[in-house]
Amino acid sequence: MYEGSPYFEYRSKFTLFGVPWVHVKTRKWYSNRPGVARGIIAIGDVSIGCISLGGLALGGICLGGVSVGLCSLGGVALAALLAVGGVAAGTAAVGGVSVGLFALGGVALGQVAIGEVAVGKLTHQLNSPDSASWSSSWQLIKELINKGFKL
């Protein structure tokens, strides 16, 4: 961290192909520009890295308000593999509103969709009388997932 700088910043000395192992960069309360962190492990207002944590997180494994990557967790999560969030989109998506090949959530849209409102090729609505007991729901969920992999 430099005196007078609008950012708090830490950069590890160890690098891999010129990319720092750990990079943390956040703005101080009086700065109006976000701190952008780039590293193997990146933590910042905007973070780009293999493991990324920030308001906007981009990379492999992401955790943030808006996260985009291979596996994402956040308010809005977009992922190639697994997305978990309020609004989630990915191959497998879990969230309030989820869109994906396999979708689980309040509103689920996908090939295999499970939720209060489920739209897709194979669906299970959790508010139906068939889903009254957990054991019957769990059995049905396993059957739907197995059918989904056979599509």
UniProtKB/TrEMBL annotation:
Transmembrane spans: 39-63, 70-93, 99-119
Organism annotation: Paenibacillus lentus
Superkingdom of origin: Bacteria
Protein name as it appears in the record: Uncharacterized protein
Keywords (A to Z) from UniProt: Membrane, Transmembrane, Transmembrane helix
